[in-house]
């Protein structure tokens, strides 16, 4: 495992300290059972409403806002305070909806989260390796985050930080690889149309979007921003030109 630089190591320590402040471990216990003392964490507890001395109208599920009837089972989480409870089926991660009864949960901004999605609130996650990014510098591209060394061409693995690239099927490609794999061939000059170059397409036919390539196959009149007649891989400016060439 590669050692973290000093900055990253400090950031990791701060990150896990923040987790300790938010984490709880869910387990089933009676509401009137004495809490364990001396522990760092207090687990979520499950109790029936009949075990509480408060009136039934006081209790309402935080997620669905439905009242909790007498005898209903409720989930209490110390991080949320003694007045907050959930139906067991409602005690779920706000982001992914994973059921968190008897599991580790995290509490932030009055919501509960699983470990993964709580972590995503604190640090960006690399789209390539799916790990959290602790470094101060990273790449943002295609609405995603990447470790600097992981933002690379999907075909040849060359790093793309600071370079031009083309996204295809949600993957980044360097320009040479994109041209090799995906570039269209101009129907007139038979050259590949570079990524970023303007082109005109009709069904399976493609042209460079300039007058040297996209013109009438008979009289060579430019067809840029003009109507045209396609026929047998040719394009024409008029019926007359089509008849002259194909007669």
Automatic annotation (TrEMBL):
LIM zinc-binding domain span: 59-123, 124-184
A single GO molecular function term of this UniProt record: metal ion binding
A Pfam family of this chain: LIM
SUPFAM superfamilies, A to Z: Glucocorticoid receptor-like (DNA-binding domain)
Keyword line: LIM domain, Metal-binding, Repeat, Zinc
PANTHER family: LIM DOMAIN-CONTAINING PROTEIN, TESTIN
Family stated for the protein in its record: Belongs to the prickle / espinas / testin family.
Descriptive protein name: Testin
Source organism: Holothuria leucospilota (Black long sea cucumber)
